[in-house]
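Lecture notes, structural biology module. Today: joint structure prediction for complexes of two components.
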Amino acid sequence: MAEKKWLPRWFYQLASPRWCYQICGKLLPWFTVAMLLLLVGGTAWSLAFAPADYQQGNSFRIIYLHVPSAILAQSCYMLMAVAGAIGLIWKMKIADLVAKSCAPIGASMAILALLTGAIWGKPTWGSWWVWDARLTSMLVLFFLYLGVMALNSAIESESTAAQATAVLALVGLVNIPIIKYSVEWWNTLHQPATFKLTEKPAMPAEMWVPLLVMVIAFYCFFAVVLMMRLRNEILRRERRSGWVKELLLSN
Amino acid sequence: MSFDSFSEFLAMGGHGLYVWLSYALGLVLIVYNLLAPRRERKRLLAEQTRRLLREGNRQ
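The predicted structure, tokenised, for the full assembly:
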């Protein structure tokens, strides 16, 4: 190759669908075990062992699903947009497949955050829904995911679909800081962020440690589902290649 | 343990409906996300194996 390689070696290896398929296959069982342990342990901790909030009582336990799903919905969107950009710039096929695999996971996390928020809002604010900045920007995030999925399936050519969805995902990226700062920029019912990188959480450790466990559990869940979806996409895209034929015949 | 009995655990201090509805939704969405790609993989492998065998027979 005439071009100078200025990125680390693993970046180029990632571009190989076969290598990517295999490494995901090796990582999957580890992440699955971690996900199951953390999810089961974290859920039991959240439901039965964490103390009830002195103001909100036990409805507070919804936080252990609401916050992790909201965080994941946003991280997933950022990954989708970044992968889309990499696909646009370097024409990397794997990046397009990652972006495509992210959308349905992000959409289900956004709807989980919205629904648990609505259910939590009823006993806490007395209403299922208010047109508040945080809630509205989160709803926009959900619609962005739906838009990306619809656009992807509407365009016949896979490379054109990937380019179009990458542009849509990148434009929608502007919504992420709006979600984050919505509780500071506008008057809102929604409480401010639970976790900040620079400060200690305002709640006691018995409450935030299980929340942290659930956040890590949700990230493991994301890794598992993303790798499963990515492997399917690779198989579909590479179905004519020699190594997939070998894999199919050895089954 | 922050509950004294199982019935108290179910009641969640009067917020049982909200808490259990949330966790049921979470369970459904997580299980769906894990099962959907598994089913898709099985379907894809079967479909592509059939195609490969069909094309092999033709030659």
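Point to remember: Chain B has one domain: 17-58.
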